[in-house]
Request: fold
Amino acid sequence: MKRKLEISELIFKILSYTFLTVFALCCLYPFVYAVSAALSGRHAVEYGQIVLFPKNIQFEAFARMFNNNMFWNAYTNTLFLALFGTIWSMLTSILGAYALSKKRLLFRKFFNFFLVFTMWFSAGLVPQYLNYIATGKVFEAIGIMDDKWLVVIAMGMAAMNIILLRNAFEGVPSEIEEAAIVDGATEFQVLSKVYIPMSKSTIATVALFFAISRWNGYFWARQMISNSNEHPLQVFIRLRLEEFQDPDFITGWNEVYATDSAIYALIVCSIIPILIIYPFIQKYFAKGVNMGGVKE
Amino acid sequence: MRAKAADYILYDQETGAYRVDPEQVVRDDVEKHYWLHVGRMILKDWRLYVMLVPMLLVFLFWRYFPMYELLGCFKVNDMVKPVADQYFSGFSYFKRLLFAGDSLSLDFWRAMRNTFLLSFYGLCFGFPMPIILALFFNEIKSDIARSVYQVLTYLPKFMSTVVMTSLVVMLVKQGALTTNMGIINQALVKLGVMSYETANAGLLNNPTFFRTIYQISGIWEGAGYDSIVFFAAIIAISPTSYEAAQIDGANKWAQMRYVVLPSILSTVVIMLITRIGSLLNVGYEKVLLLYNTNTYVTADVVSTLSYRHGMAGNTGTGIAAAAEMMNNVIGMLLVIGANTIARKASNTSLY
Reply:
């Protein structure tokens, strides 16, 4: 039985398609514009002639970026921070969440409160800054001279993610664990052979949250990493932007691209890897936001 | 509480005799040697507690030790000495920030106001947007078309704050001798919304536009992604509910009103309460990347004020920390209050 579309339904349908199309295009437009502006010739950019498609195409802005050692350096640093940061965060979170998910853990309520309280109250920027400086000195004293390790170890733990993991572990039926213990599995084997395989998708989601927050980390990396050779990509982009925004700064008169193109090229280059993996990770994100209800 | 003598005696129904309850003896033993038992339990499960240690240490060192540094709010600032050796100054920093009436105090009140207004406008304009998007997503029956729309609208969420703000800065930048103004400024001038002079000065240099830019970029970045929660609530509605409503002669608006709205109301309420709970937690990173000296009037929030005075400047770490602490304490009370209300309203606690 096929119903005829009522007039109100038709209006709503048209309205939703129009609105979504406009909104989606608005979401996309800045990126398209950035690519076009990065590829356009100097004259077209400086006189604001680009609307959608590039004009007088040049690849110099990208070429200059690819030949810049500092840029690749920043990329490597970001990869380093994201890789080791995620490994460290996941290691501590999985172990901690596993312990917290066990009913037989003594003082379980206290430990939970210990975590949750950090979501409610944060000491603020200045105390954290003083604390990072102090721990940085401790790190130096025990022989870790590299600021990068401070960023990896000290920053980017999130109580919310640990709670997501804990909830997933609590959902694993206890019969399976008991069976494993009867078969002679140790505590660590129970975790690695039973719990981790059974909550794979949550672990993937949480790892993704950690990785993205590490990849995007800017403020503390800028504050704590003093050596410009160790700056991650986000800090590199921002410093470049501040430098280019200086009214005295213009690309040399003999360049074929405008200052703006250089910044847009930088932005586009930093987005590309995310765009490449985006289709594969997107479903995990949709899952994560429903799991947690709230993402901090 | 110590057990009474009667607690030790059990009446055995089969034999009709009284005997000592062995379990109560054990309970008594546990109570008497509580910490010994705790120690035994921990030793038995020591692997579990070892697993807990790295996480606890990270939180202790980098979440709880900063709270200890907050003692600096109550002490005479002296960067050379550690907090423990400084002299107490009572509430002088708080008094100064709240009542002194000097420029720092005025800045503080301005920052409190800006913090509140930025999130309040976010609540008014940023909150309904994901719900509207989710309603519209539901209207698109073709799976492919819908996922295209969804993928496009989630996209900006994956950009870092730096990349997002860099794009915003570039799109609304000022014009100069050598370069033209940003594309959005040009569009606004073409549409006749704005005079050439205002647009050419750069939108981010004008305090009037800061809040608008902040909200619009917030919607651009987050609305699509935030709609996931609401969309999940909408697709959970059984199709039979719509059919029943249609048979009763409900048109689209009536279906919205009597089928969709009641079904997603609990999700909306929870998200709204959470949002109100985080009313004073404005992301300092985004403000820091978007504001400049010209726009402090509308852009400066408490965290950025604290950053400027305590980290980038040398007004003193104690007074800067005190400013942010007041903000965070009120914020914490709001979060706890909101969580309590959410628990009462829906029997589901967020944390």
Remarks:
- DSSP finds 17 helices and two strands in chain B.
- The beta strands of chain B are 9-12, 17-20.
